[in-house]
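Hey, resending since the last one bounced:
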Amino acid sequence: MRRIAIINQKGGVGKTTTAVNLAAALAGSGQRVCVLDLDPQAHATTHLGVEPDGKSSSMYDVLIDTRPLADVRRKVGERLWVAGSDINLAAAEVELAGVVGREVILRDLLLQDEGAFDFVFMDCAPSLGVLTINALSAANEVFIPLQPHFLALHGMGKLLETTALVAKRINPALKVTGIVLCMYEASTRLTQEVVNDLQAYLDRSRGTHAPWAKARIFTTRIRRNIKLAECPSFGQSIFAYAPLCNGAVDYAALAQEVLGAGPTILSGRVEIDDLSRAVPQKDKSAQKPERDAESATTAST
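The structure tokens again:
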């Protein structure tokens, strides 16, 4: 069971969008997937069509009362579950302050569910508090959604420092395995500069003992797409809301890359585009002798 924490202390970089739509894409590929919403704003819960009313069992009950995850999660689609959040989770930071072993509560409860799913995604709040530390302690992988802007890149140092600290003291198995570029605009010079700087930083860490020493920037880029911003208000993933849009294409390709198959959908589109550009040229050159022959016949008559 791959336990993946999706974290970035900067808000608005695509954490919830990635957690929900990547989970939906993997579920559509035949994987059993559960999303744990560890953000008191409950955006992943809402995105998957569950109302965070503060009355139903949630991740608050899991962390505070050690309620089994099986009692909290709900099935929201074929092979897709969510353990929801609500505003009560905001109090967990304070209530857990004096609890011994508060950093590993989620890890211990996930061990009871070992093998129940192929993937567990933990959607974290935009902070590095107790909730995020619980996710890092329970995870064996970290995905970092990143908007390719300078300020987003600037904050990665603190984030990586936190993962290193958790790996050293609590969870030696923790590795940063992937960086997902969200709201990607290939046409801008800034985007290319940020990607190059990030790749250079990762290359310098190769061969070290840092948790991100084998991290990669996923080949699939999540392009800026208004449909990705619209679908949460309908309580749907991008595949239910607009399955043919760029956002759905990108997250489907990312899912295949996470599974190890590579970004097959995007590469297929490139090949088709190249072919469509080549065919008209070939036809044009093939038709030219015919037109010349017709002209010659007309002139002779």
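DSSP finds 13 helices and eight strands in the chain.

Sorry for the duplicate.
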